Amino acid sequence: MTLRTKKKAVAIVLALWVFVHPPSLFAQGPETWYRELCAQCHGPDRTGGLGPALLPESLERLRLPNVVDVIAKGRVATQMPAFAGQLTPEQITSLAQWLKTTPAEILEFTLATMRATHWSKPVLPLDGPKDGGDRWNRFVVVEQGDHHLTVLDGDRFQVLARLPTHYAVHGGPKFSPDGRFVTVASRDGWVEKFDLWALEKVAEIRVAVNTRNVAVSSDGRYVAVANTLPETLVILDSNLAPIKILPGQSLDRKEHSRLSAVYDAPPRKSFIVAFKEMPELWEVSYDEAAEPVFDGLVHDHKMAEGLAVPGFLHPKRTRLPAVLDDFFFAPGYRNLIGASRGGESFVVNLDVRQAIASLPLEGMPHLGSGITFEYAGRRVMATTNLRRAELSVIDLDRWALVKSVPLCGPGFFVRSHEKSRYLFVDSMMAPSCRDTLTVIDKTTLEVVKTLRPKPGKTFAHVEFTADGRYALASVMEPAPDGALLVIDADTLAVVREIPANKPIGKYNAWNKVHRSEGTSW
């Protein structure tokens, strides 16, 4: 090819490029690139839509090179395309840097703006599931590969329905007291309610840009939503209509924080709330007859001295020795076991509202996935650790370490059932053994077997059937590699495989509603 021919070929290529990609797209910078290439999925204000929100707060866990990589290469098994062929490496880096900056205007979430996104439909009067199956022994499976909830019959292991959700549901679905409804939250702030008997969505609302998790009250009348952007706790009614917004800030408003978690404490008729940056714990009562809350200093609560506010849906604050990033309720819900990212672990008594003991737990225990069981005549709690390859077993009477059981790598979930003699522990955080489940005998606290049915594939999150006969574990991979494996809880043999698209978790209605000791809340 002569030099003249080469120049002509280059000119043709450039002409085609300009025809497909008008010069204005590349002359104006990242805002134009975002509007033309990204806004359709991620929203014109970067607060999400089909795709997640693209704001500094929502991208905080991704370093700049990771953001660049996603823009350039896309995401496998999602609708996120690769833009390396449309933007130069320099332009991709510039766009990634721009996404890490705060927009001039951020979507505001007030009760009025939330109501504008609220949708609901009448609920059919039903005596039980329309499919005729067991109302309790059914699973909700979160399939993140294509953003669906799968409703699974726990007796026949048949898929009853696949219900589309908003982007990246997480934090654990929460069931109504009768097991009929399940409420979920997605990372981009949408809360959705599904009818598991009629197999349809019945309500939704958007309450934030970024959401951590939801809790449903033990009477089914209220939903609490913990958010990181904006930093709020939002209270909804059972139909997901907004009732109240509680800013995540201290009483004097000098401190503010993202919320790290909210959970229901049934015997107390209250929600318990923890924060990511503020060393404070809230107890928010959903009992309309709750005693008044005294926010200021008083000499004698019994004499009703000081200024009080109604206790219903108002936070009762407990100051902590450290920021509590994760926690677990001891049986009875009087004591709460908490852990900070700095390595401190302690016990908080919710009645006296102060820390009463420290715990010998180093690293970063994943208390939110802990469980309790009987061992040697004592009630103990078992927890994995995100930084240490061990399962810690704690005596709940003496707040002492009973045993550390070695694992192949740092774990995430531990699960069991009242009728099972085994604990199942995954090591999904360990690159070397993320494909392994460790099985531990609850009577001896010894490892009896390791399960590795899909070498090289992430294998995690066990949930039992209502009767404890079978344990379901997730192969957390996109289709066609993703699956639910059904394990015989006695023989530990895999007896069935159910295809799924990156099933990150599964939740049994009976176990969750009845607070099985082998599952987290």
Describe this structure in words.
The chain is globular. The longest helix is centred in the N-terminal third of the chain and has 18 residues, at 3-20. A five-stranded antiparallel beta sheet has the order 1-8-7-6-5. A four-stranded antiparallel beta sheet has the order 4-3-2-35. A four-stranded antiparallel beta sheet has the order 9-10-11-12, with helices on one face. The model is unreliable at 9-25 (pLDDT under 50). With 521 residues, the protein is mainly β. Strand 31 (459-464) and strand 32 (470-475) form a beta hairpin.
Write a short abstract of this structure:
This protein is mainly β.
SSE topology sketch:
Layout: H1 3-20, H2 23-27, H3 30-37, H4 39-42, H5 64-73, H6 89-99, H7 111-117, E1 119-120, E2 138-143, E3 148-153, E4 159-164, E5 169-175, E6 181-186, E7 190-195, E8 200-206, E9 210-216, E10 222-229, E11 232-237, E12 242-247, E13 259-265, E14 270-275, E15 280-285, E16 293-294, E17 308-309, E18 315-319, E19 326-329, E20 335-339, E21 345-349, E22 354-358, E23 365-375, E24 378-385, E25 390-395, E26 400-406, E27 414-415, E28 422-426, E29 437-441, E30 446-451, E31 459-464, E32 470-475, E33 483-488, E34 494-499, E35 503-508, H8 509-513
Antiparallel strand pairs: 1-8, 2-3, 2-35, 3-4, 5-6, 6-7, 7-8, 9-10, 10-11, 11-12, 13-14, 14-15, 15-18, 16-17, 19-20, 20-21, 21-22, 23-24, 24-25, 25-26, 27-28, 28-29, 29-30, 31-32, 32-33, 33-34
